[in-house]
Structures are given as structure tokens and as C-alpha cells.
């Protein structure tokens, strides 16, 4: 037989054994592969035909069967419990939306909250209903502040209140959206909660 063919058959066999033994601890895997390699070298000297090499390898045993026997002899330790992955709904768009609604009204009155609402509608962390509630809060808060009063002096104070409080109008929708994401993370299902 061609010596290269015999070495290739043995190498393929030992590779299959390594692959089958991947779950064994490193030391047990090394001992098993070294032991089987010794058995193979005792049976295959290099003068055999391909059929004789295959018969010798079959006599040693199928790699999967050898690993199963090793595992039955000394069971593997139990797998550690899976690590709990914390899931967060806070993607970059969600963070940007809350910050623009919350701080954008102070830094850029009117523009910040409007951009915050646009970003809110493009974010995936909230349902359409939740986005609608946030929009209603953003529009409704200044509207409630603008309710006219009967007296002229009170109207003057209402206008002053609007000018002073309008930058803070994004706080209500920002707080609502942040609460929704926090509640969703507590539930832990990763899906937006209707709300």
C-alpha cells in the first residue's frame, strides 16, 4: 500500500476521534487520543493495504463509540447552568429619543422635543400605541399650559408659564418612554409591552 494513503487514513481516524471527544475535559481527551493512537500504531506498521488499515482501525473501534465508552466509564461533570443574559431594550435610538425629549427642550426649545419625537417613531423599542401616547403627552402638556384664563393678568401669567415651562414639556413623554422600557426589561421577554 501507498504509505501516504495509510497515514492519511490513520490521520483522518484520529481527527474524527478528536472531534468526537470535544466535550471531554482536555486532560481526558489527551489521554484517550494518546491511548487510541498507541493501539493504532501497534496494529498499523505501514506495510498494510488500505483495506487492512481500515480493518485495523475498525478493530480499534469507531471514534464515537470510544468516546461514548470513555464517557460511560467516568461521566462528564454536569454542564454549568446557562449564564443569564440581561436583555436591554435601550438601543441607541431609544437613548437618543429620551435624551432629546428630556434635555432637548432645554437646550433647543421646540426643536429638541420635535426631533426627539421623530427619533421615537423610528425606534423599535416601543409599540405604535406607546409612541402615540408619548406624542400626545408631548403635544398635550403645552396645550394644557396654554388654556386661556378669563382675566387679562392671569392670561399674562399663563403666557409666562408657557414660555418658562415649554422647555420642560418633553419630560412627560421622556419619563413615560423610559418607564415603558424599564418595565419591559423587568418582564424580560425582549418584546415591547403594549401599553
Low-confidence stretches: 189-195
Number of strands: 0
Radius of gyration, rounded? 35 Å
Q: Helical region count?
A: 9
Q: If you average the pLDDT, what whole number results?
A: 79
Share of residues in helices: 55-70%
Structure class: mainly alpha
Topology order in helix (H) and strand (E) letters: HHHHHHHHH
Q: How would you characterize the largest beta sheet?
A: none
Strand content: under 5%
Ends distance: 75 Å
Globally, the shape reads rod-shaped
Description:
By secondary structure, the protein is mainly alpha-helical. The protein has nine helices and no strands. It has helices at 3-20, 26-43, 50-60, 63-73, 92-107, 111-122, 128-145, 152-165, 171-187. Helix 7 runs antiparallel to helix 9 (171-187). It is rod-shaped and about 100 Å long. It starts with a helix and ends in an 8-residue tail after the last helix. 22% of the residues are buried.
Question: Outline of this structure?
Answer:
The chain is mostly helical and 195 residues long.
List keywords for this structure.
single chain, 195 residues, mainly alpha, disordered C terminus
